[in-house]
Every structure is written in C-alpha cells, then in structure tokens.
Records
---
Amino acid sequence: MQPQPPADSARPGPNDDVEDLMRVAHAAAQLAYAPYSKVRVGAALLAEDGQVYAGCNVENASFGLTLCAERSAVVRAVAAGERRFRAIAIATDQPKAFMPCGACRQFMLEFAPRLWVHVQGSKSALETINLADLLPRAFAPSDLP
Ligand code: THU
C-alpha cells in the first residue's frame, strides 16, 4: 500500500468541488439496484489525482450479499489502479443523509484513514465528517505483523 499523505494535504477542496462531487453522488444514486429496500444510495470517491469514481448500492435476492454504494465506488477505483483518496460524497434519495455503515467505514479505512466524508439526503444540507472520527481506534493494516 502507498503511504498516506499527512492530514493537511487531505483537506477537502473549496466548497464548489465538494458540491460537484455531491452532484456525481446524487446522479449515481439514480443507478442504484435496490428492488428490496427501495433505498437509493450513490457515492462519488475523489482520488488524489482528481479522478472521481462513482458507485451505487447493488442489492441481491440473497439479502446479505448487498453491496453498499461506498464499497462499490472503492472497488471501481482500486480496480482502475487508484489507492489514494481525498474524499467521498454519499447521497441518498431519503430525506435525511446516511452515514456509512460499519463495514464501509472499515473498507474505506484500508486505503484512506483520514478520508473526508460528505453526506447528504434529498432534503438535508451537506454535512462533512472525517473517517478518523467515524471509526476511532480502528483495526488497521499497520496492526498486522
Ligand atoms: N446503503 C448504502 O449503500 N450505503 C450506506 O451508507 C447505507 C446503506 C444501502 C444498502 C442497502 O441497499 C440499502 O442502502 C438499505 O440498507
């Protein structure tokens, strides 16, 4: 794994960058495959090099196989050769924003323990939190021998 940049260089860009990223996340939510929950979630993951990778939730008739939007975006990015990320925008069609689930927090931490996480629902203001605050005292790659 590439070393992580210091926390300062992981700051989000100006507000309009975040809003652009959130627009991509809202668009990705429209592509969700969610026939069971009927809940659409989209994610837009911003890599260090400026590339953006979109993901959406993909459900399954075997419910436990459901893939969240966040992990779908990370998998797309890593499969394209990206391992360094600055921020993720997470949008849902539900009125209130969703915070990423525990599995997605751990999955994102693998690559970007200080990732900026922006969330928004269909009727809520954009909110920003750092992954380090969403998953404190995490089990991390550096814990392995
Ligand atoms: N979901 C996400 O994609 N991301 C989240 O942050 C929370 C939940 C999806 C999984 C499932 O398809 C639906 O939302 C309801 O849980």
---
Amino acid sequence: MEYQHVLVERDGPVGLVTLNRPRVLNALSPALVAELSDALRGFDDDAEIGAVVLTGGPRVFAAGADIGDMADRSPVEQLQRDQTGRWAAIAAFSKPLIAAVNGYALGGGCELALMCDLIIAGDTARFGQPEINLGIIPGAGGTQRWPRTVGKYVAMEVTLGGAPLTAQRAHQLGLVNKVVPAEVTIGVARQVAAQLAEKAPVAVRLAKEAVNRALETPLSEGLAAERRSFYFLFATEDQKEGMRAFLEKRRAQFKGR
Ligand code: CAA
C-alpha cells in the first residue's frame, strides 16, 4: 500500500509513523486512519520491530476527526462507514505503541493518543475532547478511556466543557508519562521505544495484554489470566535466557522465542 497521509520509517527495531496532513492539522480522515491501520499491521507482522512511535510531527499531533468529511453525513452513512469502529485495528496493536505528542491532540487525535501505551508530551501539547462544541460527543473511545485513566470528574470536565488540558496538567493527572521540551519529544519517544524493543518480545506482548485486560475485567479474572501468561512464559527460550543471564551476571540476548 502506498501512503499519502502517513510517513513510515524504521530505525533498527523501532518503527515510526508520522501523521502527515499538516495543512489540516493532521485531521483524521478515513483514508488517513486506513493508512495508519495498515502501517501498524505491517509493523505488527514484522518480527524485527519491537516498538513503534506514533507522532504528528513537531507542531501538532492531530486536531481530531476530519470535520469537513463528517459535516453532512447521515447516521446511516456513519454506521455503514463505521469510521471510528475501524480504529479497533489501532487499539489491537500488539507491540508497545508510544505517542509523541506536540501541540493539539484534540477529539479523535486525543483518543488516538489514549489508545497508545505510553504518552510522551512536548510542553506545547494540549489534550482535549472539543466534540461538545460541535454538537456531538467523542466517538473513538474518549468517554470510556478518559474516566478509566483520570477518573470521572476530570473526564466530565473535559467532555462536557470541551476545553483542552495543558501537558503539565495531563502529566499531573497521570495521562502522560513525561513532559519534555517540544523539540525533543519525538527523540525521547524514540529512545523509550528503543529501550522497550530490547526486552523479551513475548513477555512484552503478554504484559501489554495483561495491563489492558485490567481495564476490562474483574480482578479475579484478570489475576487468573495474568497467572496463565506468567506460567506460559516459562515455555519460552527467552525466560530461560533471561534468568540464566541474570545468574551469570551478563546481559540477556532475547530472541522472541
Ligand atoms: N477537521 C478538518 N479540518 C480541520 C480540523 C478538523 N478536525 N482541525 C483543523 N482543521 C483545519 C482548519 O479548518 C484549517 O483549514 P483552512 O486553513 O483550510 O481554513 C486548518 O486546519 C488550520 O486550522 P485553524 O486555522 O483552525 O488553526 P488554529 O491554530 O486557529 O486552531 C484548532 C487550531 C484550535 C485545533 C482548531 O483548528 C480547531 O478547533 N479544530 C477542530 C478541533 C475539533 O473540534 N476536533 C474534534 C473533531 S470531531 C472528532 O474528533 C470526533 C471523534 O471523536 C472521532
């Protein structure tokens, strides 16, 4: 697939996807989302890739779903295109996905960042759900992921009020892992991705799955699933290597097996 709306690069075990519609602040058109999903599927299938950074570049992450594309749609057209349902492919990405956010992450852009596993924010980042100002509500997970991340009251403030939060406030609330000067956001995210890409890939995948499961299941079910994955990992060569390397006081060489 040839991409028009995203740029895809690789740097050793780190993939980088850059949203690339700067003229409309990376508004998330269906074509862009399709390309993004395709690029992530490609990285998911690529055994050489251990982690991926998703960014909108130095100035903006994404100002939301493409309003021009949506303005005159009927509900049935929206249902048939299932525009936001198609984002499930992004949430299903099995490797660490790190958002590097500068400038606006609004509406669907914010929801996209919230689908990532870690968020590195530049000091210019602004996170918000302004859909209420358009007479709609978030449609790509905002009403569900905000309360699960920062609790009910901030989620209400953001979705009812529509005003964005600064990077610093998002960091205080635990929505963001790190706030850095905007000019180094992508570089820091790449470093974090490179560190994660060195870990045992099967363990990383199961750890991600287990943490995500915590947001969806009762504790007893989550604990049982965690235990099954924990025991399963003793079938991997990487578990033997990791523990042997510790005992032999050397660096482990993980192979993803
Ligand atoms: N869709 C389509 N075009 C968009 C856009 C969007 N979400 N956001 C910005 N643009 C376009 C603008 O129309 C403008 O295009 P023109 O130059 O052709 O006029 C260009 O990007 C630059 O934008 P502004 O001139 O508005 O830039 P600004 O710096 O003055 O303001 C902003 C920036 C505050 C982000 C403002 O653009 C804005 O409010 N954007 C819309 C944000 C929004 O409402 N997002 C939610 C969308 S709905 C959604 O996402 C639903 C969902 O849950 C999936």
